[in-house]
UniProtKB/TrEMBL annotation:
Matching InterPro entries: MIT_dom_sf, MIT_domain_contain_protein1, MITD1_C, MITD1_C_sf
Protein name per UniProt: MIT domain-containing protein 1
Classification of source organism: Eukaryota, Metazoa, Chordata, Craniata, Vertebrata
Domain MITD1 C-terminal phospholipase D-like per the UniProt entry, residue ranges: 50-197
A GO biological process held by the record: midbody abscission
Amino acid sequence: ATKDEAKKHHYRQKISEYMTRAENIKKHIEKEKQDGKYHKQIRIEDNATGFGYEKLFQEYLTEIVSEVWVDDPYIRHVHQASRYSLYNFLRFCEMLIKGPCKVKTIHLLTSCDEGSGRSQQISGLEEIQQSLKNYGVTLNIAFSSSIHDREIRFNNGWMIKIGRGLDYFKKPQGRFSIGYCDFDLRPCHETTVDVFHTKHTKKM
């Protein structure tokens, strides 16, 4: 708004300096990522909100991502104590479909529900599998009785470990309460999220 040419010149110069500095910082972080030296940790406090799946994953879902691996022992039916785990996995798949990535294959490794819950677990996963087919996405399902770790990997090298897996959201207070549909507004359980790049990890 100033009409003083000297001030205009000064402000333009300062803005240019800040923009250059911001670009340099961005390039430095990107280089750290590429060199595999990048490790980001997010601490989600009990009852915290604003941690929907997009918030956690979108940064790493680049356009080249076409394959995703989900290792989580508790993708089960509503009889599981964490009763929304199947819906959480469905919500995660919906996020992948929305892009900007072009996911074609999702690999799920989980444990089998016990007793009467098993058939319902299988039925729910098959329904998700069929629905994903309509969007050109293949869901490969495998079961393991010894799986304990929770890990999500993308074929661009990024790996995300969440202490509670995909099931870090608290049960909504009711079907018509805020946060039931929008996960960004859903209170969370306390958990830790660690983000690595495969270049940063050593295989033993």
